[in-house]
Specification:
Elements lengths: L1 H25 L12 E4 L2 E5 L16 E4 L2 E5 L9 E3 L6 E4 L3 E5 L5 E4 L5 E2 L5 E2 L5 E3 L8 E6 L4 E6 L6 E5 L2 E3 L7 E4 L2 E3 L8 E3 L8 E4 L1 E3 L5 H36 L1
Antiparallel strand pairs: 1-4, 2-3, 5-20, 6-19, 7-8, 7-11, 7-15, 9-10, 12-13, 13-14, 15-18, 16-17
Helix pairs in contact: 1-2
């Protein structure tokens, strides 16, 4: 019976939907995390009576037809790249992006990754790095005899050194943006990679045209909304239940048919 297969595709699709929602909820407190949503498409149709075909020798045309669908499939899990809430941390090397742009991170193999997580630290050499020790590009090194470090809204990093009154420039943070942010590949560890779908990155300083600014002592939180995710979870659960009832109904119909043949 076709209904068994059709309903099973619905159950499989909603199962993947629940897995997606669970990942969003699990990352509610992950800095810079961007939630995903599920997008579905219907499967192929079997046309039992094709719409628009002629129905008589006089050339009359069928205004409607008979098409039987075969279910649903998950086709995409795009990320919603909206701005997350920016919260104050008061840590010197925490930096949040307010607006468009990603921090650029150099991975150990030399490739460049991108992140919205600005929870940076200093390595033993005084270089600005991520929580995993990856270098923030372009490389910025803080001297040992530093008293204070300030990061302006445009990404200029300055430090006041011992015995000096005028601040010294240490470097300039840069941001990268993409024409299709949803086309970035999630690598894990709060990092994204460039793909053919994302396009090549456009790089500039914070505050430039089309780019956001940065805030020192702040972090961008996840853009996951708990109420939205719970609502989506309930809807997915009910859709799964209804598809399972279709399976049970189809099974009961097959049992009745089998009993009639005995």
């Amino acid at each position: 019976m076709r209904a068994l297969y059709t309903a099973s595709t619905g159950m499989a699709a909603q199962e993947m939907n629940v897995e997606l929602i669970s990942n969003n909820i699990a990352n509610m407190r992950t800095a810079g995390f961007k939630r995903q949503r599920a997008e579905f498409q219907d499967l192929l149709y079997q046309s039992l009576r094709r719409v628009g075909s002629t129905s008589s020798d006089a050339g009359t045309v069928l205004p409607t037809g008979v098409d039987i669908g075969s279910g649903v499939k998950l086709v995409a899990t795009p990320r919603v790249m909206s701005q997350g809430v920016v919260t104050q941390t008061e840590k010197t090397y925490d930096v949040a992006v307010r607006g468009e742009g990603f921090f650029q991170i150099e991975l150990p193999d030399g490739t460049t990754a991108y992140t919205r997580d600005g929870s940076f630290e200093l390595d033993p050499n005084g270089q600005l790095v991520t929580a995993d020790g990856y270098t923030v590009q372009p490389g910025i090194t803080v001297p040992q005899n530093v008293l204070t470090v300030s990061i302006s809204a445009t990404g200029m990093v300055e430090a006041t050194l011992q015995g000096q009154t005028a601040p010294q420039q240490l470097g300039q943070l840069q941001l990268a943006r993409f024409i299709n942010k949803s086309g970035l590949e999630a690598k894990g560890d709060n990092l994204f990679l460039e793909t053919e779908a994302s396009g090549t990155p456009l790089e500039d300083v914070p505050g430039a045209e089309g780019f956001g600014t940065v805030l020192q002592g702040y972090l961008e939180q996840s853009n996951v909304n708990a109420v939205t995710e719970i609502s989506d979870l309930i809807a997915a659960q009910r859709a799964y239940e209804m598809n399972s009832k279709v399976v049970s109904s189809a099974d009961q119909m097959l049992q009745n048919t089998s009993a009639m043949l005995r």
